[in-house]
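Form 7-S
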Amino acid sequence: MLTGKQKRFLRSKAHHLNPIFQVGKGGTNDNMIKQIEEALEARELIKVSVLQNCEYDKEEIAETIVQGTNAKLVQVIGSTIILYRKSKENASLVLPR
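Output:
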C-alpha cells in the first residue's frame, strides 16, 4: 500500500505526464494489460485515460488494470487513472517514507 505522503509525491510527479493509453468502448483486454505492464516497467509512473464512450466505470477499469499488472493505484481523477509500479530493471523514482 502507498501512504498518503507517497501518493502526494507520485501525483506531483504525474501532473505533467500525458496519458499514454486510452480505454475506449471495449474496455481493457489482455493485450492492453500487457502493454501497460511494459510501459510501467519502462516508466514506473503512467496515466491512462478513460474515454467517454467506455461502457465500464473508470473505477472498474482501474481495478482491472491494477489486478492485471500488480501496479498500485495512485489516483483516479476525472477520467484519468494514475498508476505506479516500481521497475525491476531501472528504478528511477525514490518514494518518500
